[in-house]
RNA sequence: GCUCCGUUCGUCUAUCGGUUAGGACGCCAGGUUUUCAACCUGGAAAGACGAGUUCGAUUCUCGUACGGAGUACCA
């Protein structure tokens, strides 16, 4: 059994969008789960539209998603000579021919065909022409496609797809300037790179039939094909920049965790029974083309959030802190200072199970991140009226010398509430307002523990004396 | 126009001829609670439509509708 080799082959004409990211993920999972190789090839043969910035964005996106590839990034453009070599081989074999028709002629033909309602496939008059009749003019190299019979694509997802060869035209292999066209380049590169499994969007399904023509003309083995359905926007429409088709780095900037993104994306269009929440290791073990669905899926932010929340909850504190720092960077937020980082890390145990995204987590961590005087929000201010401040004034000295543990703090505060004839909830409001300046916070005990005795008492004293001066 | 692909709760999906059509997200109700969450319990919610094959179709076949892709000297 030959080793599995998959590849992700984006064209660098923009950011790495969510559909591309999922395609990359599927290829990565497929290879990594089978001890195979996962390669990255940038399809930059379209010089006019390819940009280095886009290549960088793709690399960055894959890095964030943790999709590591084997070997170097391959530039398709760099391999133009090899593509031309294959085209020439096809030419000498008689499997391709030079076509001198101009674009104007082709366009005229197509317009006439459209008007007549007949096939718009261009039938080059040069297909069977005698070389002695060749003019001294630029030409493209076209594949001499079969005109009868059918091409069958054995697709792992779509099943056997049959296309009549009469519906395939003689596609261009080499442009008139001698540069290769995508259809040729993919086939040559996939073959040369030893790609065994081509997992890509089903917008390439029809193309596969054409590409198979090149494989058979060259006598090359076909890869296993798996054409996966596209992802649609939340409204069911095709993804566009306006809705949903954000670059993956924007998802990072929105604060979704990478593991959750992988989990969610894997689950979009692929399933393994009823499993919804799983680790990378499980995904690698389970992933296969048999679990891939045939219909397009819509992107659902709510479910993404939920999955990310579950991953946050099981991520260890150090790793989580690190990812949060990367998030702040990508979102353009200032880095946390040492005190904030330390407090945040100490607070993660009581935050990570209740935050779906990093902005949400950071918001709940507000009490730990503020330094200096606590700013009291309006909603919390009512918990610091004269009566409440009086309570805090009485309470604070009693906390001065207790041992700063959860058990001890609970005991002291509960006793205090009881002695003063109030329910604990009555006491919690002022404490929350004093410690965090907000009405909604984590547990007061968690906050006191995370902040420590000095900072906690300091904030309590500040709140108690508020409005006194 | 032509060719190809798809269609199960609002969404992601399970089901490989026989199920009260299952799960998850979301939603609704209740519970728990120290606020907000989280969490627990319960609930509403689906086979596009029409034929055919079959003892029996969500499942197989065909048609219709709707959606998508391809049809470039783009990728």
TrEMBL record:
Enzyme's top EC category: ligase
Keywords, in A-Z order: Aminoacyl-tRNA synthetase, ATP-binding, Cytoplasm, Ligase, Nucleotide-binding, Protein biosynthesis
Residue span, Aminoacyl-tRNA synthetase class I anticodon-binding domain: 337-463
Residues in Glutamyl/glutaminyl-tRNA synthetase class Ib catalytic domain copies: 4-305
Protein localization: Cytoplasm
Molecular-function annotations in GO: ATP binding; glutamate-tRNA ligase activity; tRNA binding; zinc ion binding
KW ATP-binding (keyword) present: yes
GO cellular component, one term: cytosol
Any one Pfam family match given in the protein's UniProt record, by short name: Anticodon_2
Span of the signal peptide: none
Transmembrane segments: none
GO biological process: glutamyl-tRNA aminoacylation
Residues at which ATP binds: 241
Reactions listed under catalytic activity: tRNA(Glu) + L-glutamate + ATP = L-glutamyl-tRNA(Glu) + AMP + diphosphate
Motif extent ('KMSKS' region): 238-242
Highest taxon of source: Bacteria
UniProt EC number: 6.1.1.17
SUPFAM superfamilies attached to this UniProt entry: An anticodon-binding domain of class I aminoacyl-tRNA synthetases (SSF48163), Nucleotidylyl transferase (SSF52374)
Cited CDD domains: GluRS_core
Motif ('HIGH' region): 10-20
The keyword Ligase appears for this protein: yes
Gene3D superfamilies (alphabetical): 1.10.10.350, HUPs (3.40.50.620)
Family in the record: Belongs to the class-I aminoacyl-tRNA synthetase family. Glutamate--tRNA ligase type 1 subfamily.
Subunit-level organization: Monomer.
Function: Catalyzes the attachment of glutamate to tRNA(Glu) in a two-step reaction: glutamate is first activated by ATP to form Glu-AMP and then transferred to the acceptor end of tRNA(Glu).
The protein's name: Glutamate--tRNA ligase
Gene for this chain: gltX_2
């Amino acid at each position: 059994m030959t080793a599995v080799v998959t590849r992700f082959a984006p064209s660098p004409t923009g950011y790495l969008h969510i559909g591309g990211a999922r395609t990359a993920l599927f290829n990565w999972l497929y290879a990594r789960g089978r001890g195979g190789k996962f390669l990255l090839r940038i399809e930059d043969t379209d010089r006019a539209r390819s940009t280095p910035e886009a290549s960088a964005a793709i690399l960055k996106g894959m890095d964030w998603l943790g999709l590591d590839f084997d070997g170097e990034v391959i530039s398709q453009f760099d391999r133009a000579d090899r593509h031309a070599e294959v085209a020439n081989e096809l030419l000498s074999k008689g499997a391709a021919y030079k076509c001198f028709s101009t674009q104007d002629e082709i366009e005229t033909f197509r317009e006439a065909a459209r008007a007549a309602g007949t096939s718009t496939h261009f039938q080059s008059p040069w297909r069977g022409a005698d070389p002695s009749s060749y003019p001294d003019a630029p030409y493209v190299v076209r594949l001499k496609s079969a005109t009868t019979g059918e091409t069958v694509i054995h697709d792992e997802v779509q099943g056997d797809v049959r296309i009549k060869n009469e519906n395939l035209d003689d596609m261009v292999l080499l442009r008139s300037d001698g540069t290769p066209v995508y259809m040729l380049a993919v086939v040559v590169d996939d073959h040369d790179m030893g790609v065994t499994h081509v997992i890509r969007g089903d917008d390439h399904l029809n193309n596969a039939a054409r590409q198979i023509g090149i494989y058979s003309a060259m006598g090359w083995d076909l890869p296993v094909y798996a054409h996966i359905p596209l992802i649609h926007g939340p409204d069911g429409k095709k993804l566009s920049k306006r809705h949903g088709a954000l670059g993956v780095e924007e998802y990072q900037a929105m604060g979704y965790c990478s593991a959750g993104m992988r989990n969610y994306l894997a689950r979009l269009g692929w399933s393994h029974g009823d499993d919804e929440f799983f680790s990378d290791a499980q995904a690698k073990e389970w992933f296969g083309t048999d679990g891939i669905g045939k219909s397009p899926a819509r992107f659902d932010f709510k479910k993404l959030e939920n999955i990310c929340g579950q991953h946050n909850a099981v991520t260890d504190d150090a790793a989580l802190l690190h990812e949060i720092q990367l998030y702040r960077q990508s979102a353009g937020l200032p880095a946390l200072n040492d005190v904030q980082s330390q407090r945040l890390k100490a607070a993660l145990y009581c935050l990570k199970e209740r935050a779906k995204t990093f902005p949400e987590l950071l918001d709940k961590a507000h009490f730990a991140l503020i330094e200096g005087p606590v700013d009291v929000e309006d909603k919390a201010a009512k918990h610091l009226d004269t009566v409440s401040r009086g309570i805090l004034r009485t309470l604070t000295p009693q906390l001065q010398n207790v041992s700063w543990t959860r058990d001890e703090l609970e005991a002291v505060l509960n006793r205090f509430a009881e002695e003063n004839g109030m329910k604990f909830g009555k006491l919690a409001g002022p404490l929350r307002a004093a410690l965090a300046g907000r009405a909604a916070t984590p547990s007061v005990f968690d906050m006191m523990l995370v902040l420590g005795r000095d900072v906690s008492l300091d904030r309590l004293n500040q709140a108690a004396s508020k409005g006194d001066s």
